[in-house]
Design brief:
single chain; about 625 residues; alpha+beta; Gyrase A, domain 2; Immunoglobulin-like; 6-stranded mixed beta sheet; 28 strands; about 30% strand; elongated
Length: about 625
């Protein structure tokens, strides 16, 4: 055995020498002491350490020293084990009155927050301050939200408290943190306990760190179940509109939703929100950083490697903060830096974990996965469901020469903010020699025009903002120029939108061409428009055409100077149509049809003028 070299300072006080001898005898009960020394800071004993008996011996030494207001720490120095003993610093007196005051304030703020949630759940209009004058809301909000939330948070902290006491570690009762709902919507920032001495070993680190989250999580489970059972209210479209807090549910909620499913647009009852906060607090506390509960567990399991894990999670949280906008993570990162990124080691950092602590650590990891969501809550503006659609097309008149095939297309556009189902109905009418013959789809066949609609669906579903184009083909029979007109009347219906639109598509087997076939005009009531048309004769013979203009003449007047037009072979002429609106016109969309027929009354050409007042929607 090495010779004792007690003092590392000159002329040590006798009291220190006596204490060194006393401590040497105490340490000698549990370890073989090789050498001892002391200085102003503490006493140091180089010992022979048996790792099998060390955990129990060290704990016995710690408890003995605790009675002397001292604590030991085992360190490695130059390949030898040293038991270092230090005095606890002077601690102020602890008064339970602070705990009671904070508890009372937090009960008040959580009951206040519960009242606002209760009012919001049942459609009340009282604000965060006005609700304080509603005793009924305070009572029911407190019982449905404040009480279960306090139970979860209190159970969490009491879990730490009792397990700390079981490991003979002094800990305070919970300090609840009140916050007015005007600042934070839930009335509290949680609670904490003050561990008033060093954690003895890695086993205690794991068990004390995990005790709170496990206890709080278990208390949250019945609260979640009851809250989901109570979540029977569905939000009306008016209630859905506006700014709302949107809660993303963690995995544990989906387990309960298998047994207690929610209706669509269901509002979470205040009790369910209390349960959600419980698991949210569990997830935050289990983040493996600094001196959070998760930091205790990771330090106990991985030792000094916990520093790298802590840094890694800080980087992850910073990325989540700036990519998702959930700045609470940034607040937690700042707290970790404020209270210490590096977790202090326990007094005994060499005793390994047992199977029990590894099971506890794995359980904590499982609870973290069940409780964590990258974006737990966010604010979003909702608009009431709006179902609407439009029909768009380049032209609703198609001309065909003998043997010619043309593609006709139109586009359906979902202009609402919800998916929409649209039914499509098609009817056809042939004009041959002035006769009208109606038929239906999917296959339309005439003497001079064939239209194939096999690829046109009877019903289509459009996503929000989706545009989908549909096409069908029209073919004129070969041979001489026929004079036949086919009218396709398409009906587009959506029950949800309570909207029905009918559009007409004309297909003309005709020797003339009229351009433009359709044109929109913006016109004020009492004003007029000029519609310049070009008519071309593609036949090798003269054509004599009558021009007929139709519309709602109660609100329209027409310049009828041009009623007939004669065109030679290949001739092209311009036609000016003037249309006036009356002062009494409401501005509602008017469609004016300009039809051109031959001497036998057969339809050869069409053009449409769509009149709208400023501010009206575009033509479908």
């Amino acid at each position: 055995m090495k010779e004792d070299a007690f003092s590392l300072i000159p002329d040590p006080p006798q009291e220190a020498v006596d204490m060194a001898k006393k401590l040497k005898r105490l340490v000698g009960r549990y370890y073989s002491v090789l050498e001892s020394s002391f200085d102003e800071k503490g006493f140091y004993f180089t010992v022979i350490l048996d790792k099998k008996t060390h955990p129990d011996n060290f704990e016995a030494l710690r408890l003995a020293l605790k009675k002397m207001n001292m604590f030991p720490r085992v360190v490695s120095k130059e390949g030898e084990w040293v038991i270092a003993i230090f005095r606890y610093p002077e601690r102020g007196r602890y008064s339970i009155r602070v705990n009671i005051l904070l508890l009372a304030l937090t009960v008040f703020t959580t009951f206040w927050a519960g009242a606002t949630l209760w009012e919001d759940y049942w459609g009340g209009s009282a604000g965060a301050l006005e609700v304080l004058t509603h005793p009924r809301a305070l009572l029911y909000g407190g019982l449905s939200f404040g009480l279960p939330l306090m139970a979860i948070l209190g159970t969490h902290e009491l879990g730490h408290y009792f397990v700390s006491r079981r490991h003979n570690v002094d800990a305070s009762l919970p300090f609840f943190i009140p916050i007015p709902p005007l600042i934070a919507p839930f009335g509290t920032f949680g609670a904490l306990i003050s561990v008033r001495e060093n954690i003895p070993n890695r086993r205690a680190l794991v068990e004390i760190g995990a005790a709170g989250p496990i206890a709080g999580f278990m208390m949250a489970l019945p609260v979640i179940y009851i809250g989901l059972k109570l979540s029977t209210k569905t939000l009306t479209p008016d209630e859905l509109s506006g700014m709302h807090y949107i809660i993303n549910l963690p995995l544990i909620f989906y387990f309960f939703l298998k047994f207690v499913p929610l209706q669509q647009n269901a509002a979470l009852h205040p009790t369910a929100i209390a349960g959600w906060i419980g698991v949210f607090v569990t997830a935050l506390n289990l983040l493996p950083m600094g001196q959070l509960d998760g930091g205790h567990i990771v330090r106990g399991v991985f030792g000094e490697r916990a520093k790298q894990i802590s840094l890694g999670f800080i980087i992850i949280l910073l990325i989540l903060s700036f990519t998702t906008g959930f700045l609470t993570y940034l607040f937690f990162v700042l707290l970790v830096f404020l209270f210490g990124l590096i977790h202090p080691p326990p007094l005994d950092d060499i005793s390994p974990l047992r199977g029990k602590q590894r099971i506890v650590a794995f359980t904590a990891l499982l609870l973290f996965l069940l409780s964590f969501h990258p974006v737990p809550i966010y604010v979003e503006e909702f608009k009431p469901p709006h179902y609407s659609f439009e029909i768009q097309y380049a032209s609703n008149v198609t001309y065909l020469l003998p043997g010619e095939v043309e593609e006709v297309s139109f586009t359906l556009y979902n202009t609402g903010n919800e998916p929409i189902d649209i039914e499509i109905g098609v009817w056809g009418a042939y004009y041959t020699g002035g006769e009208l013959n109606w038929t239906s789809w999917p296959l339309l066949k005439g003497t001079g025009i064939d239209v194939r609609l096999e690829d046109l669906p009877e019903e289509v579903t459009l996503k929000v903002g989706e545009r989908r184009t549909f096409r069908f083909t029209a073919e004129a029979a070969p041979g001489n120029i026929t004079r036949e007109a086919l009218l396709l009347e398409m009906n587009f219906t959506s029950e949800r939108a309570e909207k029905n639109i009918t559009e007409r598509f004309w297909i003309l087997a005709s020797p003339i061409r009229v351009t433009p076939s359709t044109k929109d005009f913006i016109v004020h009531p009492g004003n007029g428009i000029r519609y310049n048309l070009t008519v071309k004769n593609l036949a090798r013979f003269d054509l004599s055409l009558s021009i007929n203009v139709t519309g709602r003449w109660g609100v329209l007047e027409m310049d009828r100077n041009i009623t007939h037009l004669t065109l030679g072979p290949g001739e092209e002429r311009g036609v000016l149509i003037t249309i006036f609106t009356s002062d009494s016109w409401s501005g509602e969309k008017e469609c004016v049809e300009i039809a051109m027929r031959d001497e036998d009354g057969r339809l050869l050409g069409l053009a449409y003028a769509v009149l709208k007042a400023p501010g009206e929607s575009k033509r479908g």
